[in-house]
From TrEMBL:
CDD domains referenced in this protein's UniProt entry, alphabetically: IPMI
GO MF term (any one): 3-isopropylmalate dehydratase activity
Organism per entry: Methanolapillus millepedarum
Annotated protein name in UniProt: 3-isopropylmalate dehydratase large subunit
UniProt xrefs under InterPro entries: Acnase/IPM_dHydase_lsu_aba_1/3, Acoase/IPM_deHydtase_lsu_aba, Aconitase_4Fe-4S_BS, Aconitase_4Fe-4S_dom, HAcnase/IPMdehydase_lsu_prok, Homoacnase/IPMdehydase_lsu, IPM_dehydratase_rel_enz, IPMI_cat
HAMAP family found in the cross-reference section: LeuC_type2 (MF_01027)
Gene that specifies this protein: dmdA_2
Binding sites annotated in the UniProt record for [4Fe-4S] cluster: 306, 366, 369
Needed cofactors: [4Fe-4S] cluster
Reactions catalysed, as given in the entry: (2R,3S)-3-isopropylmalate = (2S)-2-isopropylmalate
Every Aconitase/3-isopropylmalate dehydratase large subunit alpha/beta/alpha domain range: 11-417
Cofactor binding note of this UniProt entry: Binds 1 [4Fe-4S] cluster per subunit.
GO BP term, example: L-leucine biosynthetic process
PANTHER family per UniProt: HOMOACONITASE, MITOCHONDRIAL-RELATED, ISOPROPYLMALATE_CITRAMALATE ISOMERASE LARGE SUBUNIT
């Protein structure tokens, strides 16, 4: 029997649906893991009970395959948030579901960090940046609370198997340029709909020379080009990361796209001369080299989020700051993405140094990324952020302006009080 060449995405859906499928096929797929959090979870829980109404046993399909996290409004910043937390705690307790409700961190950092993500998995989450787990060779995607209610009840969901748009990246990232600059560059090139309902696959020597934190940044922002998922073929780097978190884990070499698989397109990039990039208001694809926006005054700088809240990101920012003071009239807010990452930052001495510089270091949560309980921008203010979205009103007032950048650009700009090319610090 002739072997059918498949993309990584097609292989995952073939496993999940129990038959060989290709892009464009409609399938009912078995879910390997489902994630929900404190913002979107309550509606999913209510929907689940509506589905189960009239049944004697109101039990989820498999509590071991469901994970709940509190990260968007933690600690509770309103009575409504507190009630949502109570609802989710009660649901988790009744159903026997693992619930990270003690400020463990941002869902997209904690999920792989705690060993809930494996290559070849089909993972869904009630958050658009669930695509971050694609960095480990999983097909992970965001969905709405109503769809999640169906998953909680049945463990299945229907999909149209997406085409795969492959980004082949070659060249060594220049000094002071990182994966955040690269993904902003790709988004700026293809646009916010360039990979609409496709699996964006990031490949090539540049990507496979990245460590897992850098890869997670890439996959995290696939949704910002319209992607259904953001996949990176797992390799020895992936295996090492997961072996430290999953007992006995061994990488199956099957989880990669076949050489002769059908891609919707293959886009080639040589980034040897790539400059630091900045996404300008109010769209993520409004990307310019930092030199074109240098000198723009900023009121607040936020370093954190599921995109760039890991220890390595904070370290990049601190290296850019060096021994310089923070510019006057600039609010620097740093939020490590998880308790584990926070402890790394703490043990490195960065928390103490940041506090001495006048910065604010918050406990792990989404923070200013979603305009949550703190760090909102006021009318006319400008924010510079290492997060993933700069939509109008995303981080506060609809009359504010948000620019997106790398941690190193954020650190350099914290010193000067204006958007600054990190290569000049």
């Amino acid at each position: 029997m002739e072997k059918i060449p498949l993309t990584l995405s097609e292989k995952i859906f073939s496993k999940a649906s129990g038959k060989t499928v290709k892009a464009g096929d409609f399938v009912t797929a078995n879910i390997d893991c489902a994630m929900t959090h404190d913002i979107t979870g309550p509606l999913a829980v209510k929907g689940f009970y509506e589905i189960m109404d009239g049944k004697d046993q109101k039990r989820v399909w498999d509590p071991k395959k469901i994970v709940i996290l509190f990260d968007h409004q933690v600690p509770a910043d309103s009575l409504n948030a507190a009630q949502n937390h109570i609802l989710m705690r009660k649901f988790a307790s009744e159903q026997g579901i693992l619930n990270y409700d003690v400020f463990e961190g941002v869902c997209h950092q904690v999920m792989p960090e705690k060993g809930h993500v494996r290559p070849g998995d089909l993972i869904v989450g009630t958050d658009s940046h669930t695509c971050a787990y694609g960095a480990f060779g999983a097909f992970s995607t965001g969905l709405g609370s109503t769809d999640m209610a169906a998953v909680l009840a049945t463990g299945k969901l229907w999909f149209r198997v997406p085409e795969t748009l492959r980004f082949h990246v070659d060249g060594k990232l220049p000094k002071h340029v990182c994966s955040k600059d690269l993904i902003l560059h790709l988004i700026g090139d293809v646009g916010v709909e360039g990979a609409r309902y496709q699996a964006a696959e990031f490949a090539g020597p540049t990507v496979h020379n990245m460590q897992m934190p850098e890869r997670m940044t890439m996959s995290n922002m696939a949704i910002e080009m319209g992607g259904k998922a953001g996949l990176i073929e797992p390799d020895s780097v992936t295996e090492k990361y997961l072996q430290e978190r999953i007992a006995g884990f061994k990488l199956d070499p099957y989880w990669k796209s076949d050489i002769d698989a059908d891609f919707s397109d293959v886009r080639d990039y040589d980034i040897s001369n790539l400059e630091p990039q900045v996404a300008c208001p109010h769209n993520v694809d409004n990307v310019k080299p930092v030199t074109e926006v240098a000198g723009t005054k900023v009121d607040q700088i936020f370093v954190g989020s599921c995109t760039n809240g890991r220890f390595e990101d904070v370290e990049m920012m601190m290296n850019a700051i060096g021994n310089n003071p923070i510019a006057k009239n600039v609010r620097l807010i740093v939020v490590p993405a998880s308790r584990t990452e926070y402890m790394k930052v703490l043990r490195a001495g960065y928390v103490e140094k940041l506090m001495e510089l006048g910065a604010i270091v918050e406990s792990p949560c989404c923070g200013p990324c979603m305009g949550g309980s703190f760090g909102r921008l006021g009318d006319g203010e400008t924010g510079l952020s290492t997060s993933n979205r700069n939509f109008k009103g995303r981080q506060g007032s609809p009359n504010s302006f948000v620019y997106l950048c790398s941690p190193e650009t954020a650190g350099a700009s914290a010193v000067t009080g204006e958007i600054t090319d990190p290569r000049e610090i």
